[in-house]
Amino acid sequence: MYLKSNLNQTVVPLSILNQEWTYRGEGNANLVLSLPNLRKIVKIRKTEKPVTLVQFLTEWLFRYVLWTDKIDAYSERDLMFYSDLMVHLIGGSFVSPAVPVIITKKEIYDLSIILKSERPECRKNKNIQFGRASLLPDYAFLPKEWDSALTGPTLAIEIKPKQGWVPFYDRQCEKCPFCLNQYVKLKNGSIKNISGYCPLDLFSGSKTRMINALHCLLNNPQNNFRAFKDGICVYDECSPFENMYKVVKEIFQQNQTTKNSLDVFINMLCELLLKPHCYNQKDFGNCDITINNVEHSLLIKEDSKISTKCDFTHHDLPSFCVLERILALQMIDLAGLKNNFLLYKYLNSKRTLDNWEYIDKICKLISTNKPKCPKRILMDYERKFVEMIGKGDGECYFDEMDEIYLVPYIVASIANDCSLMVTMRKVKKERQGIENIPEDCIFDFGDNGQFAVNFGIFDLYPKPLSVIQKHKTRNERRQSAYRQITS
Ligand SMILES: O=P(O)(O)O[C@@H]1[C@@H](OP(=O)(O)O)[C@H](OP(=O)(O)O)[C@H](O)[C@H](OP(=O)(O)O)[C@H]1OP(=O)(O)O
Ligand SMILES: Nc1ncnc2c1ncn2[C@@H]1O[C@H](COP(=O)(O)OP(=O)(O)OP(=O)(O)O)[C@@H](O)[C@H]1O
Question: Does the record's keyword annotation contain Kinase (predicted)?
Answer without folding.
Answer: yes
